[in-house]
Amino acid sequence: MPAFSKIVLVESHFPPTLTHLSLSNTELMEDPMPALEKLPLLQVLKLKQNSYSGRKLTCGSHGFPNLKVLHLKSMLCLEEWTMGIGAMPKLECLIINPCPYLKKMHEQLWCVKSLNKFDCWWPQPELRQKLREFEDKEQCSIQLYPYGI
């Protein structure tokens, strides 16, 4: 049986004009954000099932300067997501569907003024509480699924 090598994302492997990227079943062991956040024109990023198997995503300061849509889907090991100051300044839509162990999202997300849609499926109780607190004080539309949780 052939041995599979570990996939590592490197910014220089992507065209600088890339605007949309969807990863699925890549089973990345290393956080893809440090490489992807440097793509200057990236507007839509979808990290789908089995794209990343780590516990933490980290977006550096001023990363993803033009990202408008971020979709995290079925990232079954993800527990924490951190953001540096000024990261994702143009983010409009965030979809988390589901990341069942995600408990922490960095407070910096709440500083993104362009965020107007946030859908989250099956959030952990502590994350659900934080999202409700944020929704009460900001103008962002947050939908938690299933309804009524």
Note the gap between the termini. Answer: 46 Å
SSE succession:
EHEEEEEEEHE
Supply the helix-strand structural class.
Answer: alpha/beta
User: How many individual helices?
Assistant: 2
Radius of gyration: 15 Å
Number of domains: 1
Q: Please state the overall shape, judged from the principal axes of the Cα atoms.
A: globular
Biggest sheet strand order reads: 1-2-4-6-8-9
Fill in the keyword field for this structure:
six-stranded parallel β-sheet; 149 residues; 11% helix; alpha/beta; three-stranded parallel β-sheet
Write the layout of secondary structure elements.
Layout: E1 20-23, H1 33-36, E2 44-47, E3 56-59, E4 69-73, E5 80-83, E6 93-97, E7 104-105, E8 117-121, H2 125-137, E9 141-145
Parallel strand pairs: 1-2, 2-4, 3-5, 4-6, 5-7, 6-8, 8-9
InterPro entries: LRR_dom_sf (IPR032675)
Organism: Citrus unshiu (Satsuma mandarin)
Protein name: NB-ARC domain-containing protein
Summarize the structure in short:
With 149 residues, this protein is an alpha/beta fold. It has one domain (18-145). The chain has 2 helices and 9 strands.
Overview of the structural elements:
With 149 residues, this protein is α/β, with parallel strands linked by helices. The protein has one domain (18-145). It is 11% helix and 26% strand. It has a 6-stranded parallel beta sheet, covered by helices on one side. A 3-stranded parallel beta sheet has the order 3-5-7, with no helix packed on it. Strand 8 (117-121), helix 2 (125-137) and strand 9 (141-145) form a beta-alpha-beta unit. The radius of gyration is 15 Å and the shape is globular. The termini are far apart. The model has no long low-confidence stretch (mean pLDDT 87).
